[in-house]
Structure formats: C-alpha cells, structure tokens
Amino acid sequence: MLPVEHDDPINAKILAISEDKIEGFVREPFEEIAKRSAIDVDLVMARIAAMLRAGTIRRVRQTLLATNLADGALVAWKVPEDKIDNAFDWMFQRDPFSGHVVLRSTDTVTAGTDYKLWTTVKVPHGFSLQQHCELLSKKVGAERFRLMSAKGIFTLGVGHVRRKTIEPGSKADQPAKMIPVQVVDLGEDEWKVLLTLKREFTPEEIRSTPWAGRAKEAGVSLDEFYRVAEQLNARKIIGRFSTFLEHVKPSVGGVRVTRFNALFHWAVPPGREIEAGGEVGRHHILTHCYWREAGPEFKNVNIMAVAHGTDKQLLLEHKAAIDRHLHSIGIPVAYTNVFWGGRSEIKPSEIAPQVYREWLREMTS
User: Fold this and answer.
1) Which backbone phi and psi does 101 adopt, to 5 degrees?
2) Which residues does residue 308 pair with via DSSP β-bridges, in sequence order?
3) Partners of 60 in beta bridges
4) If you ran DSSP here, which 8-state letter would residue 24 be given?
5) 206-209: long-range contacts at Cβ-Cβ below 8 A with a sequence spacing of 24 or more?
6) 58 close to 249: Cβ distance less than 8 angstroms
7) For 100-112, what is each residue's pLDDT tens digit?
8) Among residues 134, 154, 159, 152, which one has the least CA distance to residue 144?
9) Cβ neighbours for 39, distance < 8 A, ≥ 6 positions apart
10) pTM of structure
C-alpha cells in the first residue's frame, strides 16, 4: 500500500507542484510534475493514482479559463432557513452549471449576513445568467439573489499544501496583473477536443502519453489533438493541469487539508479596483482574487479574495496583513468583512451549449 495522505513527505513534494504549478496545456503533464518535483515519473504517477483512489485527491483534470467560454458569476442567495438545506442539495445535485455550493456565515451580524447560500454559476454564451438564476430561485424557493460577475481576475489557483507554511504578509515583488474577462468563440472541432480535454482523469488514465485516449475519444489523431489544444492554450482558454485535493472533508485517515475557508470582502473607491485588486492579489496566501461588484446589499464591496487554512486566527492575521498593506500604500477601504465557509460541495461547472439546451428543456418541460 502506497502512502495516500497529503502530508506524507513524497506526496507533499508532488502536490506542491501538481496542485497549481503546471500552467497551460502540457503534452506530458506527469513527466513535468516529476521533473519539477525531482521525483521519478513512475513514482509520481503511482502516488497520484493512489491518492485519487483513496479520495485524498478529489480530481485530476485540465482546467479551463471558463470565464472566457461561459458567462459566470458568484451568486449570493437569500433563502428561508427551513429551505436552505434542500436548496443546497438541489444546487449541488440538479444544476450542473453551479460549481461551488457553500453555506457562509459572518462572526457578527452585518451587511449581507442573511445571504447564507453562495454558489458559482456559469452558463454558455448565448444564454442568460439572470434567467438561469431566476429559474433556480423558483426551484429552491429563494427570496432574493445577488449576481456578482467577475470584471477581472487577479489570482486563480489552489496550492493548499504549498500555502500551509506561508507567513502573514508574504507577497510577490510586484502587484498581480489583472486578467480581463473576455468572450471567446469556438468552432465545432475545437469544442470536440475541449470537451474531452477537460474531463476528469480516472486512476487508470494516469500514465505516460495521457492524451492519446482523449484524442481517440474526440475522433482525431494525437497530433491533431495536440495542435488544437496548443491553439486553445495560445488563445488563453486553457488554465492549469491540476490535482485537486479534497480540502473540505477529512481523508480516509481523518487528516484534513484545511478547516477554514474565508471569503474576504473589501470596498475600495470606484476607479481604484484594478490597483487594489493587484495589491490584494499579490499576497501568496490567496487562492482566488477577483473584482466583483457586490452592490448595496454588501456595502458596495468590489474586491473579493479567498484563503484557506487549518487555523482561523492565522487566517485573520493574513487578512490583517493585507489590510495594513492597503493602508500603507494609501488605498482607502470603506468597508471590509469575512464570510466563513461551512458546508461545502465543489464540482466543475458544465459549459457545453448542447448540455445546457438539454438541461433547460428538462427543467422547463
């Protein structure tokens, strides 16, 4: 039996690379992980497959910059207390276009406290996010919802193992550059490759030349698959090749990767969102940082970031360090808060137009 916990020394070295360091499309991703972690490729593949079978790794997949392929938003839902658990289950089980489904709370009653259910939603271009959420609202009995589309992305990654030892205030030498959200249209052949490219790997697929089976599935030669994938990569549609840890629930051995999931909110002056997002996003502890307009329900918050950890107080110290940094460089913050994650389920959002059409037909028939 191979060790399958994330804190095993060899596994930790592999995960420090495989979680979020393999950028873009790579023809031999496991060889690249092996090279960068200085561990033999056969051992890398065996360990990743073992962790995936054990559930330590939740999924292995090529991620996409889906914000360019589908209209997406963070959505806060106000749902009556007696309906919130059923609403959570419905969003997770019945809506393939909802990705993260999280119940959130604050330490004190404040703006937006009564919005306890938070989800990420994506719908393919040509369909309406507003109408999608109105449909979900009817299905789950929500009283209100607030759509918060991303205007820009400053940080997007995981790297929970690597972030365990980061000190509060640790940051990059330069501000994070904002990735603007822009629409990309794909042809039929590109969709064919993309839909096979993004599917999760089974343990049996973790081997050399892992894309050969996907090329066959897409009905193209391996060379053609590489050509299209690299073309998609050049068009900024491909994200990272990642191994996603199960960071919400304990492993089979009872070991947790994280215990706390903090969504940080800041309201900065209009016109300074890109500057503030770059300064917040340069902090190493953050897995996500976005410019989103939260509106008056949340005191006009416009910069949001996510951090994970096993110690709540340490996460608050990371937040305090970011606050001090913003103050030190003269970016005023009118309001700030932390929404803590509780019950949580995560799945990749579906983005295929055909799947959406079929789902919509089923939901409205």
Assistant:
1) -125, 115
2) 261
3) 243
4) S
5) 206/30, 206/45, 206/48, 206/49, 206/52, 206/60, 207/30, 207/45, 208/28, 208/30, 208/31, 208/41, 208/45, 209/28
6) no
7) 999 999 998 888 9
8) 134
9) 10, 13, 14
10) 0.79
